[in-house]
């Protein structure tokens, strides 16, 4: 048989050699690969079922290892394809078509490992490659390989983050990362009676969700007008707070957004903080998207004033590229979470344990089971250091500046919504040939708004590019391009400009 064994391992020179059945994956050159065809699987593993693996068969160590290697191989193939600009971002199917090509049935009896490996491969086959350099569709783009390694390891450890007792290492890691990100230490009194919340018109929809979940109702969330760049207008905030007070209502909370979801605007934090101080309101900063700017000296000024907030949300899975999901919340005042959320469950949080029980952080949070999201974050930060993360952020902003410059250079084909974006969101309309000579104004915008979703459909069919679109306020549909992946380079932006014109010219 001259068929290449699936167990062959390309040495650095890529010459296949056979691995021992139970090869420890310790050598860095041990990049294992095998072909797509399942026939090539060695007979000894393909016919096995789960009971042949650990812990059901205690002699099943080698088989278990082999099975996991193969799943890892499938993942590695996917990673390579993700970064291959010659590969499509997606192979789009309608839901009904996809149901036909996928076998999603749960069988009554065990399936062979061979089938499960097939299933693993199929699961990725129709998946959108969010790490592809031309995927600009979401706030979380990119695939950081170190973070992926962290996530694999986390999955193997399968840890619930409630106590030091069961997650000693990861609890300490969480403390390290949060102390590192801790730049707040001033305590301000705040009003605690619940009634009215304030946030900008362009803030994230989760604020509405929070108002509803807390039982306030979405009507008790006041949306403050924004300026042309999408930033909250502090004088309007002050006016609206006064208005509620005059009606006898109790404002208690203001959320400023650092990096709005669509336009990437940074609300003026100092000015918002002044209003909060004046009225003694809780000042929260939603930096889920923009928080990463703090990691670079050239961008951190955008969040000046954040140190005056009582709380911040920050999602490292967005600008920082940590694998999904990794969302953090930071409070200025120590002990606040434990005093609010502690339920003192006797079976978890015994006070007479043989170590300092303040490390049992599980009682600080509202959920019980909590996934370990720290390791992939900590490992990525270790790999880059602060300086690497600064470069990471600077790269995203450099690519954004390059895109804006390109769009301006092709102003016949592209119309920017905001020609000085504050974050890596770039909002624009693509202008097809027939509309290029039309007079600017609402009529042209209306027609442009009809064109963008059709162009998006063409992108998905072509599989070459993905950019999201939406309307906003009075603006009809426009594209919002996000650069939050380290894979994006100038060539990808040049490609994007050409590809949009190739796909949309005749619309
Ligand atoms: C993504 C995002 C959120 C939501 O964060 P989740 O952790 O995904 O719930 C909130 N606010 C802003 C500005 C965001 O961009």
TrEMBL record:
One annotated Gene Ontology cellular component of this protein: cytoplasm
UniProt-recorded Gene Ontology molecular function terms: glutamate decarboxylase activity; pyridoxal phosphate binding
Named cofactor requirement(s): pyridoxal 5'-phosphate
Modified sites of kind N6-(pyridoxal phosphate)lysine: 318
Annotated segments matching region Disordered: 1-28
Record key words, sorted: Decarboxylase, Lyase, Pyridoxal phosphate
SUPFAM superfamilies: PLP-dependent transferases (SSF53383)
Domain of life: Eukaryota
Biological process, per Gene Ontology: gamma-aminobutyric acid biosynthetic process
UniProt biased composition (Low complexity): 8-28
Stated family: Belongs to the group II decarboxylase family.
Protein name, UniProt field: Glutamate decarboxylase
Organism field: Hyalella azteca
Lineage start: Eukaryota, Metazoa, Ecdysozoa, Arthropoda, Crustacea
Gene name per UniProt: LOC108677746
